[in-house]
Design brief:
Elements lengths: L5 E6 L3 H12 L4 E7 L11 E2 L2 H6 L6 E4 L6 H10 L3 E4 L7 H14 L3 E3 L9 H9 L3 E9 L2 H4 L15 H14 L5 E10 L7 E7 L5 E7 L7 E8 L2 E6 L4 E4 L2 E4 L4 H15 L7 H12 L1 E5 L5
Parallel strand pairs: 1-2, 1-4, 2-3, 4-5, 5-6, 7-10, 8-15
Antiparallel strand pairs: 7-11, 8-9, 9-10, 11-12, 12-13, 13-14
Helix pairs in contact: 3-4, 7-9
Bound molecules: NADP nicotinamide-adenine-dinucleotide phosphate.
């Protein structure tokens, strides 16, 4: 039996859409890329481009789904519009700017019988599922998350990241939290937080969080946007059977006596999951990583620091 491809439009044709979504979609026969939407006129070769989602709808083009790859501040409005018009929705991370926005999208998708996928791409890094399986039956003694990168290298010209709802250092940091909430058993809770806010910015440049596992093991989280030189995306977990280290954002897994690594295939796996969800008529929306970020803003001390210049 032939299965028709899912006709998909990319909304927001910026860095992540070009680097990852376009190649993953073009390599996956389960999808047909039919359009892109970008206000300032960016276009993908061979595909019609529109300045807004309204214009795409007005053009009468047939499509089944959208992948929303915009900054988080506008994600809810676009996703609500797409769901309202009967389209399945993939949300880049973070799924929206607030938890209540995500809850409203879950309601809209449920009422319309459509798929909503909060796509935590770091959970598809090759080391993550083996790490989860290895940790599942071990006693967790504690963990340390170090996510330090150079904002000038990875986010040049992205003004939105420093604006309210832009997440600042939590933009990469939420990737670490998406992995931690996947591999560590039970619910993680936040007990303390300290956020550094530059005098000229509306989002934090660094954050230190104290979390604990369901069994009370401490997790120290160190997020920083000012790292120069080697970049660090590591999660170390101490267990009663030795230490686990996930490094390079989850691509390399070191277990006692063993190192596993493979080439990056996060987005191909992410789109395979989206296809499976659409075909099975289900949704996948886990807000645990976003909840920890929201808790950090609720519970954290704000430290004003010197102005930061790009
Ligand atoms: P980006 O390079 O700034 O791209 C964002 C794009 O969204 C721009 O092309 C922008 O278009 C477009 N946009 C803004 N408002 C829009 C609207 N109302 N309708 C349609 N398009 C709109 O940002 P990015 O790095 O791709 O990041 C986007 C999201 O992906 C963020 O949430 C980020 O956390 C996530 N992400 C990024 C990476 C990464 O490595 N960069 C990795 C994983 C996930 P204009 O330029 O025309 O305004």
């Amino acid at each position: 039996m032939t299965v028709e491809p899912i006709r998909l439009a990319i909304v927001g044709l910026g860095k992540i859409a070009r680097d990852q979504h376009l190649p993953a979609l073009r390599a996956n026969p389960a999808f047909a890329l039919v359009a892109t939407v970008c206000p300032l006129g960016a276009r993908a070769e061979g595909v019609p481009g529109f300045a807004s989602l309204e214009d795409l709808h007005a053009a009468g083009l047939a499509f089944d789904a959208v992948a929303i790859c915009t900054p988080p501040q506008v994600r809810h409005r676009l996703a609500a519009e797409a769901l309202g018009r009967g389209r399945h929705v993939l949300l880049e991370k973070p799924p929206a700017a607030t938890l209540s926005e995500v809850a409203s999208l879950v309601d809209l998708a449920g009422e319309a019988g459509l798929t909503l996928f909060a796509a935590w791409h770091s959970r598809f890094a090759v080391g993550v599922e083996p790490a989860r399986r290895w940790l599942a039956d071990r006693g967790i003694l504690g963990a340390r998350i170090t996510w330090r990168e150079d904002v000038r290298v990875w986010h040049p010209g992205q003004a939105w990241i420093w604006q309210p709802g832009g997440f600042g250092v939590f933009d990469p940091g939420i990737n670490a939290l998406s992995i931690a909430t996947r591999i560590l058993p039970g619910t993680l809770s936040l007990t303390d937080a300290e956020l550094e806010l530059p005098a000229n910015r509306d989002a934090p440049i660094a954050a230190r969080l104290a979390l604990r596992t369901a069994t009370g093991a401490p997790i120290a989280v160190d997020l920083d946007f000012r790292q120069t030189g080697p970049q660090t995306w590591d999660i170390e977990v101490e267990t009663d059977a030795g230490a686990l280290l996930l490094s390079k954002g989850g691509a390399v897994l070191a277990l006692p006596g063993e190192i596993r690594q493979a080439s990056d295939a996060e987005y191909p796996a992410l789109y395979a999951r989206f296809a499976e969800l659409v075909r099975s008529g289900s949704s996948d929306v886990d807000t645990a990583p976003l909840r920890l970020v929201a808790d950090a803003f609720l519970r954290g001390r704000m430290l004003r620091t010197d102005a930061f210049d790009d």
